[in-house]
Amino acid sequence: MDWGMENRLSQLIQADGHCFFLPIDHGYFQGPTSCLEKPGETIKPLLPYCDALFVTRGVLRAAVDPAGSKPIILRVSGGASVLGKDLANESLTTSIEEILRLNAAAVGISIFVGTDYERESLMNLAEIVNQCEDFGIPVMAVTAVGKELEKRDARYLALCSRIAAELGARVVKTYWCKNFDKVVAGCPVPVVMAGGPKCETEKEVFDFVYDGMQNGAIGLNLGRNVWQNPYPVAMMKALHAIIHEDLTAREAWELFNDVKAEKIKKAKIKKGKKG
Q: What is the signed CA dihedral for 41, 44, 46, 47, rounded to 10 degrees?
């Protein structure tokens, strides 16, 4: 591995071999997603607990302070929206010159295996790998499933992840599922868990993240279950502790509740002073 590639990966994957990425790229197909209408304000208190931001170039320029920024994973695919016929109909949206100009530590691109646009998305991945390898920039492939969430089983995700690795992705972002160890076992590059749809409870999030880490994932790329939570900082702290401090799901849940209680206490004190 050349020095530039190794250096960029070391910015993303920490010394313990783990990583926690914070994605705020949802607007590229969802528009002003709930709680992400003003992304700069949303991420400000969360940045101390993540290792990198996954973001589009537009939001990066408009809402992320370049001074002292976390490493950037730049979203480089798009072209479809929730209103369109097929979310899988994506193209490359960002040139290699732009990737270099924005000083990205890595890029991220979605692939849609098993859809009508399977070949196009896989060729998008191959093309961006060809371009980025020349400059030592790692590519993270995202095994997207569009609106067909029922596809997220171990057999399907193992297939997607292996194909992504075969085409040159340095990291694969995929969904947690039952028998997640089978997904990881078939993928020769590091696997990072996606957050997926918003979970019903915090404990549900901690359970799947802990299970995934125990079964071979190196980390997490999770957004909605953090910044759509009423206590996002508490979620970040608890998830960070699973990823980097080896807390169990129950210990993380207890930490979440402790941070939440302290937040509520401070809010009551502040309200009392105003009264």
A: 140
pLDDT tens per residue across span 41-92: 999 999 999 999 999 999 999 999 999 999 999 999 999 998 999 999 999 9
Angle of helix 232-245 versus helix 249-274 axis, rounded to 10: 150
In this prediction, residue 275 carries a pLDDT of: 60
Structure tokens at 232: 């996002």
**Do the beta carbons of residue 107 and residue 74 sit within 8 Å?**
yes
Give the three-class secondary structure for 83: coil
Structural domains present in the chain: 3-223 (3.20.20.70)
Element (H, E) at 111: strand 106-111
**Stretch 211-229: mean pLDDT, rounded?**
97
Q: Which ranges in 13-116 belong to alpha helices (H)?
A: 27-30, 39-43, 57-63, 96-101
As annotated, the active-site residues are: 173
